Structure formats: structure tokens, C-alpha cells
């Protein structure tokens, strides 16, 4: 597969491991499954503990097939962020029986589960705090030359330790590298393709995705913006999963949706920033953080 081609869509077969299963690659590190955390299109995740050190972690598994090794792709992305305190870290990986696995940072509940537990009622202060922490997690990924392309609440999680306030971004099955540095340290953007396949989630994807345009960093920020605004009020297009209908509603009703709520009205300026940002542009994270902090201080 060439660098200009995209990873094909595919569902990863769900793998069920019995509680108490001992997973190891080389016999040195042995991980015991405690419970299933969740499963999705890109694998099944378990809460595990290291038999020797008692370190708790998350173990993600996918069955070995002739298709793409998505765990390998995710591992490569996570490894480039190993030096980041607020990023998922890799502890172990390998092959066990007929599946691949990766062991990584154990997180607490994701934002979708938290929203369900809270009946989607968040204070303004909580929304702004989550805006800042989730945007910081996205910025870390972007600074390592990747875009996520499927940002949504279930792909962010709080720290497993309730005394810590980190928010982690995960699930890089649709991620794509948007730039590279050559041996001389020169930074090169990838040439945008004329048309791309639909990626992501209809509710949160950018208008560029609806129009099948190449996605850049700004499109991740659009998804983040929709996701965060939804914590305040249902999005005008949330009732439809039809891309064409959602696209029309995003174009017609976004600004009016924001302006009718005094709290959301203060975020209209972020829309202006994103509208002025093109594929190759670096989003103005500093200005966006500034808007968020100004609202936090009100």
C-alpha cells in the first residue's frame, strides 16, 4: 500500500478472553485479565494486571488475519508519544495464541460513559475544563504529525486514578500521518488527495469530510468543537445519521445554534478561527485556549 493510499475500512473480529486468562509474548511479562472494558470496530480491551509487579494496565487484542495489522499502526503512533506525560504509554505487545495484543495505560471511563452517568448535565465550568484538556490531548497528537480522523466522546477517557485530572485520547485505528521530517529536519506536508473516502462519525465530522476532501489538523478541531458543544446541548443534526442531511444542518444551523445560548455564544469566535484555517495550516491552538480560559474566568 502506497503512502497516498488509505487504510481500508474493516471491522476487527471481537475476541473473548475468559477472566483470569494469562497473556504473554515471551514468558517474562505475564498479564492476567480481570474484566472486559469495552469493544469496538478496532478491537476488544481488557483490564489486566501484571502477575509479578501487580501493575494494572489495559490490554487490547485483535485476531491475526491476512488484513492490516491495526494494532501495529496504533502502537507506532503511541510510541512516538511515549515522552508525553498526558499520552497513552505502551508497556508490552506481542502475539499470544491466535491474536495480537498491546498493553498500555489503563484509563478511567470515557467521556461518553461519563455523559450517560451524568444524564448529559455538565456545569459550564466542567465543560470548559474538558474543552481545555481534550484540546491539549489533540494538540499532542498533532505535534507528532498525526491526525486522528474519528474524534468523539468515546475516544477520550479520564485518568484511572480519580485524584489525577488527565484526559487521554486513544483509538488510533483511523489515524493518518499528515507530515514528515526529512533527514535534514525539514518539515513536509503530505500532498492532499483530490477525493477521499468517508472517515469518522457523521455527527462529529467536519464539512470537509462531508465533501470528501483531504482532512488536516483543523478537521480534528472541528470534531472536537462539535463534541464539546454537545456537552451543553444536543446538536441540531444529532438525530440523523444520513451524511447529506447532517451536512446541510451543519451548514445552516451551527451559528444560530450557538447564538441562542448565552454560554455557547462565547464560542462563536472559535468557528471564525476554524473557518479561516485550511488543510495545511496549523490551527491557532493558543488563541482557542485563550478563548476557553477567558470563559473559564467569567
TrEMBL record:
Pfam families: Pkinase
Positions bound to ATP: 60
Domain Protein kinase: from-to ranges: 31-297
GO molecular function terms noted in the UniProt entry: ATP binding; protein kinase activity
SMART domains with a match to the protein in the record: S_TKc
Stored PROSITE patterns: PROTEIN_KINASE_ATP, PROTEIN_KINASE_DOM
Keyword field: ATP-binding, Nucleotide-binding
Name recorded for this polypeptide: Protein kinase domain-containing protein
Amino acid at each position: 500500500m502506497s503512502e497516498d493510499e488509505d487504510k481500508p475500512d474493516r471491522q476487527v473480529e471481537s475476541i473473548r478472553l475468559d477472566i483470569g486468562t494469562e497473556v504473554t509474548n515471551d514468558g517474562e511479562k505475564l498479564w492476567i485479565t480481570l474484566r472486559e472494558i469495552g469493544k469496538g470496530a478496532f478491537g476488544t480491551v481488557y483490564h489486566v494486571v501484571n502477575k509479578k509487579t501487580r501493575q494494572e494496565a489495559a490490554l487490547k487484542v485483535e485476531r491475526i488475519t491476512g488484513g492490516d495489522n491495526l494494532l501495529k499502526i496504533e502502537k507506532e503512533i503511541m510510541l512516538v508519544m511515549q515522552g508525553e506525560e498526558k499520552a497513552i504509554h505502551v508497556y508490552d505487545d506481542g502475539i499470544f495464541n491466535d491474536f495480537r495484543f498491546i498493553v498500555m495505560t489503563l484509563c478511567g471511563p470515557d467521556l461518553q460513559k461519563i455523559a450517560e452517568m451524568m444524564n448529559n448535565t455538565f456545569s459550564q465550568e466542567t465543560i470548559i475544563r474538558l474543552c481545555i484538556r481534550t484540546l491539549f490531548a489533540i494538540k499532542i497528537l498533532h505535534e507528532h504529525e498525526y491526525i486522528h480522523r474519528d474524534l468523539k466522546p468515546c475516544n477520550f477517557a479520564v485518568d484511572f486514578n480519580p485524584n489525577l485530572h488527565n484526559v487521554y485520547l486513544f483509538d488510533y485505528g483511523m489515524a493518518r500521518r499528515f507530515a514528515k521530517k526529512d533527514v535534514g529536519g525539514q518539515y513536509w506536508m503530505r500532498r492532499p488527495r483530490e477525493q477521499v473516502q468517508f472517515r469518522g462519525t457523521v455527527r462529529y465530522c467536519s464539512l470537509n469530510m462531508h465533501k470528501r476532501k483531504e482532512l488536516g489538523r483543523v478537521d480534528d478541531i472541528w470534531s472536537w468543537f462539535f463534541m464539546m458543544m454537545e456537552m451543553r446541548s444536543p446538536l441540531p443534526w444529532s438525530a440523523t445519521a444520513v451524511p447529506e442531511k447532517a451536512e446541510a444542518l451543519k451548514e445552516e444551523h451551527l451559528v444560530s445554534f450557538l447564538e441562542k445560548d448565552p454560554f455557547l455564544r462565547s464560542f462563536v469566535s472559535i468557528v471564525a478561527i476554524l473557518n479561516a484555517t485550511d488543510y495545511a495550516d496549523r490551527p491557532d491552538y493558543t488563541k482557542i485556549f485563550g478563548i476557553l480560559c477567558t470563559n473559564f474566568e467569567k
